[in-house]
Amino acid sequence: MKQLYIAGRWLDGTATTTTRSPSDRNDVVGEYASAGAEEAALAVAAAHAAAPGWALSGVQMRADALDAIGSELLARKSELGTLLAREEGKTLPEAIGEVARAGAIFKFYAQEALRVRGDRLASVRPGVDVDVTREPVGVVGIIAPWNFPIAIPAWKIAPALAYGNTVVFKPAEIVPGSAWALAEIISRAGLPPGVFNLAMGPGRVVGEAMLNDARVHAISFTGSTSTGERVMLACARRRARVQLEMGGKNPLVVLADADLDVAVNAAIQGSFFSTGQRCTASSRLIVDEAIYGRFVDAMAGRMAALKVGNALEQGIDIGPVVDASQLEQDLSYIGIAKQEGARLVCGGERLQRDTEGYFLSPALFADCAPGMRHAREEIFGPVASVIPAKGYEHALALANDTEFGLTAGICTTSLKHATHFKRHAKAGMVMVNLPTAGVDYHVPFGGTKASSYGPREQGSNAVEFFATVKTSYTSA
Asked: 412: closest CA among 260, 251, 187?
C-alpha cells in the first residue's frame, strides 16, 4: 500500500483505496492510503511548523530542489506516463507528454525561484527610501482534479515551493497513483520535513479540513464550478487567499474564409482528444452557415477514422472515459441532446473492446440551437455541438453567450477578424487557427466569468498568488 507523506514521514491512513484502470477493470493500478480528519490535521500542522524556516530558506536551495524534481520527471516520463495512462485513461503519448510537461514546469520554477523581484524607490519625503518586496503567503492547500493528475499538481506545487510556501496537497480520489509518484520524487529532493505534505483522501474530509483551518493561508483549487464556489465561500469567511480554476464551455468559431483542414484539425483535437475531459475542450463549434455543410461532413469523415480503445495500445486516438460516473453523465447529455432535437451526426455510443472499460465513441451533434442544454452546460466528455452562425458578428456574439470564459478559438485567414476576435472574445485565453485545448507552461493560464477566480496560474504571473507584497520605509 502507498502511504501518505506528512512531516517527512510515510504514514498509514484511516482507510485504503484500491484503484482500477478505466481501460481494463481487471487491472488493479494500486492500493493507496486515505487520510482521515486526524491525518489531515497532522499535514496542516506539519506545513505550519515548517513555514517560518522555509520562508527564510535560500533561493538556491529551492532552485536546486525544484530542478532535481524536474530532471527526475523527465528521465522517468515513459514509466510515469504508463502509470498515468493506466490510471486516468488518456492515451500513452498524451500521458507521456503530460509527465514531460510536469518536468518542464518544475525546471521553469527552479529558475523563477532565483528571479523574485522587488523595487527600491525614492520616497516623496527627503531622506527616506522605500523597498517593495515579495514574501511567501505561508501554508498553501492544493486541491487538484483528476483529468491532469500530474501536470496540474506540478503547476501549483512548483510555484508554491519556489516562492517559499509550504504545501498540503490533496489529489483527486480516483487518481492517487500519479500524485503519489510525484510526492515520492519530491520526498527525495532535499526539502525540510513538513515543507511538502501529501494527504490523499476524500474531499469531504481532507478538503474540508484544509478549507476550515486558519493555519492554511491560501487555497489553490481546480475542479467543478459548484465545488469552486463552496471553496471560495469557505475562504472568504476566514479571509484566506483563494485561486479557482473551474469549468468551461469553450467556443471554436469557424469562418467562411477558414482553411477547412486547419479548422477540422483544430476541432477534432480540441473537442475529442484526452476524451474531451479538458476544461479547455472545444465543446461549441460555431460555424459560418456558408461552409456549415462542408464542415460537418469533413468532421464526420475525420471522426470515422478515430480509434477508441485501451489507453496503452499503440495507434489509439482516444482512451476511455475516466470512470462509470463520468460515462453516465456523458451518455445522459447525449440523450438530452437527442431529446432537444439536435441531429446526431456520428458517435455517442458505448463501445465494447477486448477489455472491460468505459469506452465511448466521440459524439458530434449538428443543427444545435445555442439555448439547448447540451450546448450550454459543461459535459466534460467527447461531445461537441455544431451551431450555425450568420457571419462574423453573429459568431462572436454566440461565442460570448456563455457563463464561462476560459478559452475561445477562431479559424480564419482574415487578419482583421482574427485581431478583432482576440480583443473582443470574453475569455482568458484566445487561440487563432489552433485547438482551444493545448497551452504552454511558461505563460499565464486562466479565464474569466464562471471559469476562474483570482490571480492567473503558470508562468511568472504565478507569483501574484503565491507571494504577498510588503512595502518598507527606511529613514537614512
From this structure: 260
Residue with C-alpha cell 528571479? Answer: 115
The structural domain count of the chain equals: 2
Structural domain boundaries enclosing 352:
250-432
Angle at the Cα of 458 (from 454 to 464), degrees rounded to 5?
Answer: 45
pLDDT at 476: 75
CATH number at residue 170: 3.40.605.10
Let me know whether 8 and 154 are in one domain.
yes
Asked if residue 403 and residue 274 are part of one domain, the reply reads yes
pLDDT < 70 stretches in the chain: none
Cα distances from 39 to residues 175, 194, 258, in angstroms, run: 19, 13, 55
Q: What is the spatial distance between Cα 285 and Cα 352, in angstroms, rounded to a whole number?
A: 28
Per residue in 87-143, pLDDT (tens digit) is 999 999 999 999 999 999 999 999 999 999 999 999 999 999 999 999 999 999 999
State the Cα–Cα distance between residues 363 and 348, nearest whole angstrom: 4
The residues, any chain, with a CB within 8 Å of residue 428's CB and separated by 6 or more, are: 405, 406, 407, 444, 445, 446, 447, 448, 451, 452, 456
C-alpha cell at 290: 456558408
Which amino acid is located at 419 in the chain? T
Residue 205 and residue 392: Cα distance in Å, rounded? Answer: 49
pLDDT value, residue 13: 96
pTM of the model: 0.97
C-alpha 207/C-alpha 229 separation (Å) is 14
Same domain, 238 and 156: yes
pLDDT tens for 426-460 read 999 999 999 999 999 999 999 999 999 999 999 99
Say if residue 218 is in the same domain as residue 97: yes
Annotated active-site residue 245? The verdict is yes
Give the chain's length: 476
Question: Which position among 39, 72, 112, 245 bears the catalytic label?
Answer: 245
